[in-house]
Design goal:
The structure is a homodimer.
Chain A lengths: L10 E5 H17 L3 E2 L9 H9 L5 E3 L2 H9 L4 E7 L4 H11 L3 E6 L2 H11 L4 E6 L13 H11 L2 E7 L10 H21 L6 E4 L2 H4 L9 E2 L9 H6 L9 E11 L2 E4 L3 H4 L11 E2 L7 E6 L2 E5 L12 E6 L2 H5 L4 E6 L2 E7 L8
Parallel strand pairs in A: 1-16, 2-9, 3-4, 4-5, 5-6, 6-7, 7-8, 8-9
Antiparallel strand pairs in A: 1-10, 10-11, 10-15, 11-14, 12-15, 13-14, 16-17
Helix pairs in contact in A: 3-4, 4-5, 5-6, 6-7
């Protein structure tokens, strides 16, 4: 990401060419393997990027919340999957009802109680996918229990079209291959229990950015990666995104400087505070692979700057890839879009904070 | 915090009585010790709360950015200190110029270069405080170097009125007393070097929520705590905020449940992802002191629920104190204000995202 002059820091900068290359590469990879691509829009929260994903061949979007679905359906996306075991009361049900009139909508379920509440408040015949735990141990049922949940959902009047999982345990060094194998095995086992219950699982949806390249067609029918749009320091350190593919950085100004160290004005309120135990810091500097963001407070990023060269002067603007780009984007109102170092657009992060 | 019925989760809920009690207690503690109170508004980012702090006796506000100063001056606050070593170019200087016409403004400096840029672009006679490193090792100069920076700032045409520090190394179990002592020693030493340079440091500003109760008057003249308004899980675990003083929680709904465990819909996009090494999890549950938030993703908080009782049913709304309330507030557009379990107001987080 070549930063333009005159940025008001801190801010998030998107390299349009790098992003478009990422969109095209994932679309091609999915197409070649016969997988439907349904990118997770929680990463970018931006209708402009969603339109580009759909134009590149995505079959629809994935979102995490009803509020995100409202933003993207409102922006013209006609096919949305809420990949979350929503708890639906009358108020949320009314919002889902309204969405169903405007778009093709699918929702996750992982319990008989959740399915009953969904059917009651969001209406019968809503399409649902049963969430499976493939090893991340967050939400979702064991594959062996998927048939029972599917039967309960169908009994409540919902239309069960398949199963989905998030192989989040692939977010650790060296873990992606194992997680991708777990994903395929869990989706296959769950689909068998649905078949046993007389419910065909025609959609078997998985995928994450670290595992996407390892997912083959056949068992899995649909991929839902999110982060691949931009990449981030986590993906860099996991080996699933080369530095050249980083399409979003925070631009921060050097405000303090001492031997071997600078402090930037892009802190946790810009980068986000995510830091998995295996990460080497709170972000990475594409321009200096040896630098490490060793401390982060709300408006300060402390960067250790090793090597023979003096660290940059106060006032220098530096690019930092956040650890977790979804968190960084959700802190910004806009993305500054650049091409070959020139600002070409400003995109609103329309679904920022759309958590309900 | 007694949660009202009918909340649309996830959301942030402020208990008005608990918050007002926190404001009154800190104001009284400062008054009794002869300390000026200048609360850090980055915690709440809300003009309504700033007005209450000023009404309770605060002399003005502290902010971290020019954009925050713009919001609070725009809302009528006449006295603002930007406690940050700003790097000021022409554009930021013009914004500071505009602020000076509307309010009493002070800015931090910690280098001769920074002071020169500030004087050049924001105008002569601007009041500044020299930032001192009292042990947190973020920004700020060693006390021994403060006189030199002050002389450079004065030489550039700025009005040096004192010194300030943030004893952030008090954010660890058992560290507050030591950090408060470091703070007083550093401010005293820095003030001596300014005196030696012929520049009286009439303002000696310090303070943080963990150390505030340990700061005595004399050396220190001004306190800048932020988090005390609400408290949070960090302060709870540091011993600087009893559960009864927690005035802000995230309300999350149980969306999944298994023996000894629930998953709530309030994830890192609501609570923030801050987790110091000494924290027991990603937040605390005021209603269940034994529960721990053991995993957090964007829309999921995994809560281990020990003890003989079954965890609450799906659909139950539960209060979670975030680890770091400043980060949580900066993710929200509004705060739902309650009193004895009834919603009495909705406050905008006007300075959310005001990072520039």
């Amino acid at each position: 990401v070549l930063l333009p002059d005159g940025l008001v820091t801190p801010c998030l900068v998107v390299d349009l060419d790098a992003m478009d290359a990422n969109l095209a590469a994932m679309a091609a990879a999915a197409r070649e393997r016969g997988l439907a691509l349904r990118p997770h829009a929680k990463t970018h929260k931006s209708p402009e990027i969603a339109r580009r994903q759909l134009a590149a061949g995505a079959v629809g979007l994935t979102v995490a919340t009803v509020a995100e679905a409202e933003v993207f359906v409102g922006a013209g996306c006609a096919d949305v999957f809420v990949a979350y075991p929503l708890w639906v009361d009358a108020a949320r049900g009314a919002r889902l009802h309204a969405l169903r009139e405007r778009a093709s909508l699918r929702v996750g379920v992982d319990s008989a109680e959740g399915a009953a509440a969904l059917a009651r408040h969001a209406g019968r015949d809503l399409e649902v996918l049963v969430e499976i735990d493939s090893g991340h141990h967050r939400t979702g049922v064991a594959p062996a229990d998927a048939g029972e949940v599917a039967r309960a959902a169908a009994g409540a009047g919902l239309r069960v079209v398949g199963v989905f999982t998030f192989p989040g345990h692939g977010y650790a060094p060296g873990a992606a291959a194992h997680a991708a194998a777990d994903e395929a095995a869990a989706l296959a086992a769950a689909a068998r229990t649905l078949a046993h219950a007389g419910i065909p699982a025609s959609v078997r949806s998985g995928g994450s950015t670290p595992t996407a390249a390892l997912t083959t067609g056949g068992t899995v029918t649909e991929l839902r990666p999110g982060v691949y749009v931009f990449g981030d320091a986590q993906q860099l350190e996991l080996g699933s995104c080369p530095t050249s593919a980083l399409a979003l950085v925070a631009a921060g100004t050097v405000v303090a400087r001492s031997p071997g160290r600078v402090v930037l004005d892009a802190g946790s309120k810009v980068l986000g505070a995510d830091r998995p135990a295996w990460a080497t810091g709170f972000g990475r500097l594409p321009g200096n692979p040896d630098a490490r963001v060793t401390a982060l407070s709300e408006h300060h990023a402390t960067v250790e700057w090793p090597g023979p060269d003096d660290p940059p002067d106060r006032g220098t603007v530096i690019a930092v890839a956040p650890n977790h780009v979804c968190a960084a984007v959700n802190l910004a109102d806009t993305l500054t879009v650049v091409r070959m170092g020139e600002i070409v657009d400003i995109w609103p992060v329309s679904a920022r904070g759309a958590n309900t």
